[in-house]
Amino acid sequence: MSFDFNPTAWQIVPARGFDQLKVGEIFRAPSRTLTDAHASAFQTVSCDNHPIHYDTGYAQRYGHPAPVVHGLQVLAFTAPGATLLPHNFGAIFIAFTELTAKFLVEVHAGDTLYSALEIIELTPLDGKGEVTTDVTVHNQKGELVLSGRHKYLLRTA
């Protein structure tokens, strides 16, 4: 097969305009199982060296069955780039502007996490548009471990 390759035209999914997005669309990330290596890597990057995250004895003394994965690491599972959402935005994406999160159930190495972003609001602004998504992370038991919201600013014109 022969064709002219253009890397700027290489898209995973066709990009859409703000007016083509729909409330209720859900963008899922592939499941991921956390390991001790993931937790160690995040500890190194975040510089959060609290023993609750790596010391089994310490964690158990304070009522946890095992070291607790960093909350911000769980939040990272809601990164829009882990889904196809920003690929749908394409060149109209301006900024990730806001987020909220509630940590509901602790996460441990060995847990498998399932993340999703659902468009809940599309707000036209002056020449721009704001996309609001509900974000969720469930574990392998079906428990909601994190819930929150993201907001993104897009070009409309």
Automatic annotation (TrEMBL):
Keywords per UniProt: Plasmid
Protein name: Dehydratase
The keyword Acetylation is annotated on this UniProt entry: no
Transmembrane segments: none
Source taxon at top rank: Bacteria
Record domain MaoC-like: where: 24-138
InterPro entries reported in the protein's UniProt record: HotDog_dom_sf, MaoC-like_dom, MCH/BMMD
